[in-house]
Design brief:
The chain has 333 residues and is of the alpha+beta class. It has two domains: 3-108, Immunoglobulins (Immunoglobulin-like, Sandwich); 170-330, no CATH class. It contains five helices and 17 strands. The chain has helices at 67-70, 125-130, 134-146, 170-185, 201-210; strands spanning 3-5, 14-15, 20-24, 28-34, 40-43, 49-54, 74-81, 85-92, 98-108, 215-218, 222-223, 242-243, 259-264, 267-276, 284-289, 307-312, 325-330. It has a six-stranded antiparallel sheet with strand order 10-17-13-14-15-16, covered by helices on one side. A five-stranded mixed sheet has the order 2-3-9-8-5, with no helix packed on it. Strand 8 and strand 9 form a beta hairpin. Helix 3 (134-146) packs across helix 4. The longest helix has 16 residues, at 170-185. The radius of gyration is 22 Å and the shape is elongated. The relative contact order is 0.12.
Length: 333
Amino acid sequence: MAGLRAAAGTGLGFNPEKNRLLVPANKHSDLILVAGKDLVVTVDDEKIAKWDAFQPVQWMKDGALSPWEKTQNTRGLRISGKSIGSTVLHAKTPDGFDFVAPLTINVIPDPEFRNGNEKVVSDPLGAEMRAAKFRDALVMLARDQMFSAIGRSPHGGSGRYGLKPGDEWCGAFVHWVYMRTAATLAVANPFGNQVGTLASPQKAIGWALHNPALATIIRYQGADPYGWSWDAAPKADKTALTQDFIDISANNPVQTGDVALHRDEKGWRHVCMVVDPPGVGKDDFTTIDGNQTGAYRPEGASQECIGMNSHNASDKLPDGKSYKWVFLHMTSI
């Protein structure tokens, strides 16, 4: 079927779910139009944005295209931002029928192809987040980062989201999304302002053990793996806080926006955020993850540092008892 596509590292600012492109003024984003040989491509207001053709030769080798798409005529569309504003790109048949869903183009001032930055979440994303539930707003902002120049580059997140270059930033990304979403919705961030809260799975579990009113730890059993660092004044007997096993259930669900913690036979490895949750009798779930080209990624190397991944919640460690995936169900949002 005809449509617009982006290859790895390209299509900056393109959100296929919203069929929307964010492009900064004086910059461009490259998309391909699949099966669009005879379509007439126009932009409603060329003072806001324009398009030029280019040859997407390398893209034909990219995994973004299906085998069928690779057999079709493809056209490269280089869409450039001219001035701040909004317009629409059309790809019509010669008789004037919109053969591809019209693409909304928002030309924005942010040079990194995103609505959400360290100071503000601008419209249209800001307005959509304020009209949504907190959990859904979290995913909206995370996806905004995923499609940005940061997320679609190999190492764009290094030194961002509150950490120094070279730091492992998967948990920092989740914390940043919570912090900016809370600020946009004018509510409290359950994790507070300290990025270290989610700096590792161990720290996240330790934080949750010390904040039972804010989160429930699901599918973890045992002592605080981080130790006493969360306590300002530890108990004299140093008795560690412990967690009894809590499974996924109707009373203790995993929901969109909850935090997912991954471990394997080598130990604790990764922090990410749940998008489509697992449930009772439903093992498959999806997450949105930062640091995808960093030191660890369950699915292997990625060309882009923020991405969506699918998992099986029933996966266990070699002992056959402990789950690889542990969840912080955030009860206060």
